[in-house]
Fold this protein.
Amino acid sequence: MRPDTSAENVDHAAEAARLERTAGLYPEDTEALLLRAAAHLELSGDRPAATKLYDRLLASAAGSSGSSGLENPSLVRALKASNLWEYGHEAEARAIIDGVRTAAPRDPAPWVIVAEALEAHDELEAAHETFTEGARLLLADVAQPPYPTHPLLYGRHRVRRMLGLSHDEWDALADTLHSMPVSLDELHDPKRVWSLGSDDPADLEAEISRLRAELGAYREALSRPFPVAMLHWPADELTELLEAYPSLSTEYPSYGDHLATIESALRELASSGTPNLGVVRGTVPSYEAFAASEGASPTDATLLPQYATTLAARGRAVAWPPQPGAACWCGSERAYGECHGLGGATAADR
């Protein structure tokens, strides 16, 4: 059940409780499941309960090893700040937003969430600064902005229109990325609010067209397929996998070959025009559980791509290629551009 489903069609509180129970059964998916549960709680109107879930995630991460226990701590903090502000905790929300901006995450989602929180509370100058900071960090020296960064440009465009600022290069880029029949300039026209009270059929017809365009963009974003994902086994997991199931060594002659094969396959898919590529990280326990759910043996190599697809469908994929300056997908902790992003380099070369 998607969190955007209307309250008329789902009991959001019950759905949140179900997701919390599910998180207890699948620890590796706790973060994703509890974030969805918190979204349902917000929609149900129980914002304090949603904050408790955000705090639970942040506390569990801090209790393990700093923020490393979360895949995206900045996203959790951004969602918490947005939620807090909605039920009167403005000072705390502002402090968290400042912290997110200082952390300068490489994921566009936290930037968009905190900027939209500022925008929603009429802090247009601060929202503009935040959208711009995120764009400057993530889009510098990027020839074609990755899809997840588009909301940064669209939000910045919208706020600049409300501030009465003239178009700049990023506004022009946002215009080119927007593919709906109604232009961004028209969608983001501050005068739209006045047309809503008009009795002129032409004004109403124009507003219906704009709303259809916005709905079309929203549906397109929701319906984007999960990534075409390559399965990556970290070194220790691959060692454990091959010790338990030696027959799979034909699939993975060495760890270096495994990494090189992933990168070359992704580049080949990209050159063929395949969109929305990603990498999923496998673990032996979850692979064994997947094999059991399929009534098959883990030694069956045909399960490997199915396992990768299942992980991607569960939101476990990391987009490829990584954002400029972001860590490489292989887990080396080096920047992608200095690791597998080096042109023509292979794992064996490094």
DSSP finds 16 helices and three strands in the chain. Residues 230 and 279 are 5 Å apart (CA to CA).
